[in-house]
Structures are given as structure tokens and as C-alpha cells.
Design a protein that fits this description.
Layout: H1 2-6, H2 8-11, H3 13-26, H4 28-45, H5 83-119, H6 121-135, H7 139-150, H8 154-181, H9 184-191, H10 196-232, H11 244-251, H12 260-287, H13 289-293, E1 304-305, E2 320-331, E3 334-346, E4 351-355, H14 362-369, E5 378-387, E6 390-391, H15 397-403, E7 408-411, H16 415-418, H17 425-434, H18 441-454, H19 460-463, H20 473-485, E8 491-495, H21 503-520, E9 523-528, H22 531-537, E10 540-545, E11 548-554, H23 555-560, H24 565-572, E12 622-624, E13 628-630
Parallel strand pairs: 1-5, 4-9, 4-10, 7-8, 8-9
Antiparallel strand pairs: 2-3, 2-5, 5-6, 10-11, 11-13, 12-13
Helix pairs in contact: 3-12, 4-5, 4-12, 5-6, 5-8, 5-10, 6-8, 7-8, 8-10, 9-10, 10-11, 10-12, 11-12, 17-18, 18-20, 20-21
The site of magnesium ion (MG) has 4 residues, from α14.
């Protein structure tokens, strides 16, 4: 196991570059853009080596020859010069000017943006007001004014185009820098005594670099077009040197009689700008990490269900019945089996604790129940979820939506992330009520107040108008619980609701949940990694490991006498106060990677009692005594499992 854990790290890098390329190529248009642009760039780079005619050699006897004339593949222009040769040399010039202009704009724009964003205050104000002044003019007019002041010429046109594009970069980069400048890693660098310049270069720059690359990839096209525009007006390249814009300008006079002289450079401009833009879009999409695992689509409203058969309804008429649930993440060619057959029941009014190490699949189980796992990449590949006897995974979406937040509600770990930061908490509760019931705003508000009092928020009548950031972590979680209670659900799924809180607040929240459950008869599926928490609240426990339930039974029985070696070791990890210097036993090794589960028992590699039999074949979840079940060939128990 240990060797297996160490090995993947160094290999990480290569798949990342590979993944970028794969994702990029999946976007057909971007790939086409890349191919076209490569061809154009190759042609222009190789221009001196190609057997081209002299682009400046005039021969007025041969003027305006049609394309495909002998010796002139694309014909000749008004001075009898070879258009093919001028096109390739012109393209070369246009590309160089466009690229240099965009590098210039990106460089100066980024320097201004990073400086303004990093120092803030007066520096920011001065720099941004200067940028605003540049932005106050329509930029093509500004470019014309700059060239008029500097005098016509390609270099001046380049400078003008770069200058008018600086604000675009400066604004974008400043925005990103402002959010970075107050991050903890920047504070840490300051504490370490780094100079401002060094922080900007080594801490901020690497983080804004992707934004710069993306901004450049989307602006190179414009800049080529803008330089061509200036040349077209006679302000850029001067005769006899021609870039694409001035070729177009020269051809314009004979547009009706000899259209090829302007169509050829026009087409080339079109091809370059299109391919640069397609390529830029592709790069932007492929660089966005959120798109990397989830293909190039938005998640759907419910998880994709792709299962062969629906299991028979179970005998146990529980409120929530999860049977052999298998949820996978299909990322590219890899399939991560997050859940490989989870079976559990929650009865009315009962609290079931779902416990396991981080990564064992607890959250995926909770989200799969209401089809909330993001698809793609999530797929429910097998099993069934029955709520009050009805199968919900296969039900129409309208049915599922009625259950969500109404009959079954969720409490999440971090209430700051789940509450909307820009709305008052009261309004958010009102919204949750009105999503399912047609009640007036004032009635809903009265109900919200009642709930905030029920979850024991002090001064509820004034707190109702607070924004989430004005509340403490514990109070926010109370609001989260109030929101889960709005529609009097039968079942609350709470995914580590106390993990982000300190111990005293955690104890208060747990006792609140316990009271609410008893008063209102609501069932709870309580997810945690902490046996201490389970012991306070839950009637029964299901222990999860590598996407499966490995042991289940009444809390007291399991705590007193764990049967699965994994459960025993998890319990041994809980520190107890007043126990003197009891040794804490961390579980050696790490949970297995879910895309590569070992055959047999998934815990065997970390188990000190594993036998050869544990490493082969399927290990069933067998009854163990009357109310318990365990997935182990050699369960440990003082009472020897009795009736099993
Ligand atoms: P926990 O028990 O800590 O709540 P989770 O249920 O969040 O664990 O995760 C279970 C497994 O599923 C983990 O191996 C995790 O890496 C994987 N997983 C969760 N979400 C995704 C996702 N969107 N894409 C790929 N893998 C995921
Ligand atoms: Mg989780």
C-alpha cells in the first residue's frame, strides 16, 4: 500500500499536460483553428525559403492578371506584382505586428494591473484613473489620433494598437490581483520579509498568468485586425512594403473590375482572425480547471442514471431505503467507483449515523439519494433509492424536485458556502418556503422568524435581517438547520454539519438537532467522520469504507463491541478526556484509490488480521446477531457474534 501511495505523485505532471491537450482537441473548432493557424504561421516563417517571386518586382504590362495565370498562381496586382508572394510576405508582417502589439499590451497592462491591485489605495486610484482616460475615447479614434501624432508607419501603428489595448489588460489583471492581494499566502510572504517586488513576481504573477494568457489569446485576433485597419487607411505600412491591410487598401480601387486583388488578402485576414479566435476560445476552455473533470458542459439538473436493473423492493418498509447503490465518476477513460453497492435504511424518526474516513463516499451517498451528484462526470450505475416506498432515481424530474427541500432536506458542512452572500438570511428562508408552497410573503416571514427562534438564535427578530457574513459560524449553521426545517421534512440529510465548528458550538448544535428530531419526529441521516459525535446523537450507525457499508447496527452495541477491524480502529482513534496518557492509534496506510480497488476486502491491506481468504472474492455484508451486520470473514467480537 505504501509503495502504491508514493508512486503516483511524480507521475501527476504528465497527465495534466496530456489532459489539457485532450480536452483542447475534443473541441473540434479549436483544433481546426489550431491547424489552420499552424499552416499560416509555417508559410510565413518559411517565406524566405519558398521559391517565391520578388514581392516588389513591378511589371505594368502584366497588371491585374487573373489567378491561375502562368507564373502567377494568385494573379498580379495593379503594378503587376505577384500576389502570392506579396500575400505571404504581407501575412508575415501582419502576424509579427499583431503579436508584438499584443505582447506589448499584455506586458504594460499586466504591470499596471498588478501594481494597482497589489498596492491599492492611492496608487490604484491614480493608475486606474489614467486607464479610464484612455478608455474614455472610442479606441479606433484613439489609435488614429496616436498615429496622427507619431506620423504614419508600421511601427507607429503597432504602438497605437498596443496602447489602446493596455486598458483591457490592466482592468482584467487588476481585478484578479485585488482578490489575491489579501490572501493568506501573500500575508505569509510579507511576514517572511519578502520585498513587494518579489511578492508581485513570485506570488502574484504565477496566479494571474493564466488570466494573461487567456486575455492574450482572445485579443491577438483584434490586434491583427486593428493593425490591418490602420494600414488599410494608409497609416500603417508604407509602400512598397505591404501588410495584409495595405494590400486590401490598394486592391480597393479596382474592386469592381479586378476583385481578386482585394479578395485574396481579405480572405487571409478572415482566416487568420477566425483561427486565432477559435484557438483562443479553445485555450480558455481547456485551461479552466472546472471544465477539466466535467467535460465542456454544465452539470445537469439531476444525476444521470445508467443502470441495468432496479432491485426488488426490500421487505423493510423504512422511510428511506438505499439498495446496492453504485455511483461512479466517469472522467475521460477512467471510471472512479465512488460507491460500489451501498445499502442502508433510515426508519421514520430515527437517526442513522453514516461514518467513515474522508473520501470513503459519504457525501456522494448523501448527494446520490436526491440525484444531486454533478453529471457529468457523476453517473448512478446501479441500485435503487426508495423514499416511502417509491423509487426516486427513476422517477420523473418533477417528482424528484417536489421531494427536494420539501420532504427531504439537506444541511451542509459549510453554511457560509451554501447561504447566498448577498441576501439577508430571512429572505433566503422565505425563498425556501415559497419554492414549495404558495404562501404570502408576510406569512412566510412569520414562519421564518418562528424557525429562527426554534433553532435558538438570540434576538431572532433582528437577526432575521442580517447578512450571512454578519453571523458567527454557529449561528450560520443554525440558519442552515432552520432552512432545512422550513417545509417540515420527514428526513434531513446532514453532511458533516458540525465539522467546521468548534467543540462547544458543536455540542450545542448536536443537542439542538437532537431536540428538534424528538419534537418533530424527523428522521436524520447524519454524516460524520467522528465517532464522538455519533455517540451523542445516533440510534444506529453504518460504517463506510471505500464506497461500501462494512458494518451496521445499534450505536451502543457497536461502540461497546465493534465487529469489523476497521470500526474497532476508528473507535480507537477517538481521544477521550481524563484517560491519562492513553495511546492514540492512527490507522496505518491510506484508503485505497476508488478506481483501483483490491479484490476481496478493501480494508485487507491495512488490516492486521487479514488472512489470504480476505484478498479474494466478494465479501458479503452478513447478519451478525439479530440487529447487526458486518462485511468481514473474521469479525472480532467478545460475544462471538452469537446468532450469526
Ligand atoms: P467523503 O466520505 O469524505 O464525503 P466523498 O463522498 O466526497 O467522500 O468522495 C468519495 C470519492 O468520490 C472520493 O474518492 C472522491 O475523490 C470521489 N469524488 C467525489 N466527487 C468527485 C467528482 N466530482 N469527480 C471525481 N471524483 C469525485
Ligand atoms: Mg464529505
Amino acid at each position: 500500500m505504501t509503495a502504491g501511495d508514493v508512486a503516483p505523485t511524480p507521475q501527476r505532471r504528465r497527465p495534466a499536460a496530456g489532459a489539457f491537450l485532450k480536452l483542447f482537441l475534443r473541441n473540434r473548432l479549436a483544433a481546426a483553428g489550431a491547424i489552420l493557424l499552424t499552416a499560416v504561421v509555417l508559410l510565413s516563417v518559411l517565406a524566405p525559403l519558398l521559391p517565391l517571386q520578388d514581392p516588389y518586382a513591378q511589371d505594368t504590362a502584366q497588371k491585374f492578371l487573373r489567378p491561375f495565370s502562368p507564373g502567377h498562381l494568385l494573379g498580379t496586382d495593379h503594378l503587376g506584382r505577384d500576389i502570392l508572394s506579396r500575400l505571404i510576405w504581407g501575412t508575415r508582417l501582419s502576424l509579427v505586428v499583431g503579436l508584438v502589439a499584443s505582447f506589448g499590451a499584455a506586458f504594460f497592462g499586466s504591470v499596471i494591473g498588478i501594481t494597482a491591485g497589489y498596492f491599492g489605495g492611492r496608487t490604484d486610484n491614480w493608475l486606474m484613473r489614467a486607464i479610464d482616460m484612455l478608455m474614455a475615447f472610442p479606441y479606433i479614434l484613439l489609435a488614429l489620433a496616436i498615429v496622427a501624432a507619431l506620423g504614419p508607419g508600421l511601427v507607429n501603428a503597432l504602438i497605437a494598437v498596443a496602447v489602446v489595448n493596455i486598458p483591457f489588460f490592466a482592468r482584467n489583471i487588476r481585478g484578479v490581483t485585488v482578490t489575491l492581494a489579501h490572501k493568506e499566502f501573500v500575508d505569509a510572504a510579507r511576514l517572511a520579509g519578502m520585498t513587494d517586488l518579489r511578492i508581485m513576481v513570485s506570488e502574484i504573477l504565477p496566479n494571474v498568468l493564466p488570466v494573461i494568457v487567456i486575455a492574450m489569446s482572445t485579443t491577438v485576433g483584434w490586434m491583427i485586425l486593428e493593425t490591418a485597419g490602420l494600414s488599410f487607411l494608409g497609416l500603417g505600412s508604407q509602400p512598397p512594403v505591404a501588410d495584409l491591410g495595405s494590400m486590401l487598401g490598394e486592391g480597393r480601387n479596382a474592386l469592381i473590375t479586378d476583385p481578386h486583388a482585394s479578395i485574396v488578402p481579405g480572405l487571409m485576414i478572415f482566416v487568420i482572425v477566425m483561427s486565432v479566435n477559435l484557438l483562443g476560445d479553445g485555450i480558455r476552455d481547456a485551461l479552466d480547471p472546472r471544465l477539466r473533470s466535467g467535460a465542456l458542459t454544465r452539470p445537469m439538473a439531476r444525476t444521470i442514471v445508467d443502470r441495468n436493473a432496479v432491485p426488488q423492493p426490500p421487505a423493510d418498509p423504512a422511510l428511506l431505503n438505499v439498495q446496492e447503490l453504485r455511483t461512479e465518476f466517469r472522467v475521460g477513460s477512467r471510471t472512479l467507483k465512488a460507491l460500489s453497492g451501498v445499502t442502508l435504511q433510515v426508519r421514520p424518526g430515527e437517526c442513522l449515523g453514516l461514518i467513515g474516513e474522508s473520501g470513503s463516499g459519504k457525501s456522494v451517498t448523501a448527494l446520490s439519494v436526491m440525484g444531486l451528484v454533478a453529471s457529468p462526470p457523476g453517473v448512478i450505475a446501479g441500485g435503487a433509492v426508495r423514499y416511502a416506498g417509491t423509487e426516486v432515481l427513476g422517477a420523473p424530474f418533477s417528482e424528484l424536485r417536489k421531494l427536494r427541500g420539501d420532504r427531504i432536506s439537506y444541511i451542509f458542512q459549510d453554511p457560509l458556502a451554501t447561504l447566498h452572500p448577498l441576501y439577508r438570511v430571512g429572505d433566503q428562508i422565505v425563498e425556501a418556503i415559497q419554492a414549495h408552497h404558495a404562501v404570502s410573503k408576510s406569512k412566510a416571514r412569520a414562519r421564518a422568524l418562528e424557525l429562527l427562534e426554534a433553532v435558538r438564535i438570540p434576538n431572532a427578530s433582528s437577526r432575521i435581517d442580517n447578512f450571512p457574513h454578519e453571523l458567527s459560524g454557529g449561528m450560520r449553521q443554525r440558519v442552515g438547520i432552520a432552512m432545512a426545517l422550513v417545509n417540515e421534512p420527514d428526513l434531513i440529510i446532514a453532511d458533516e454539519p458540525t465539522t467546521a465548528l468548534d467543540v462547544t458550538v458543536q455540542a450545542q448544535i448536536l443537542s439542538l438537532l437532537d431536540d428538534l428530531r424528538r419534537e418533530r419526529g424527523v428522521a436524520i441521516l447524519f454524516i460524520t467522520h467522528d465517532f464522538g459525535v455519533v455517540a451523542q446523537l445516533c440510534d444506529r450507525i453504518a460504517v463506510m469504507y471505500a464506497g461500501r457499508i462494512v458494518e451496521t447496527g445499534p450505536t451502543a452495541a457497536i461502540l461497546a463491541d465493534p465487529a469489523h477491524p476497521y470500526t474497532r480502529r476508528l473507535i480507537a482513534c477517538v481521544p477521550e478526556l481524563g484517560e491519562g496518557q492513553r495511546e492514540l492509534h492512527a490507522i496505518p496506510g491510506l484508503p485505497p484509490a476508488v478506481d483501483d480497488l483490491p479484490p476481496g476486502c478493501a480494508f485487507a491491506p491495512r488490516c492486521d488480521k487479514a488472512q489470504p481468504a480476505c484478498r479474494t472474492g466478494e465479501i458479503p455484508l452478513d447478519a451478525f446477531g439479530s440487529e447487526r451486520a458486518v462485511r468481514c470473514l473474521f469479525p472480532e467480537s467478545d460475544q462471538a457474534g452469537g446468532a450469526a
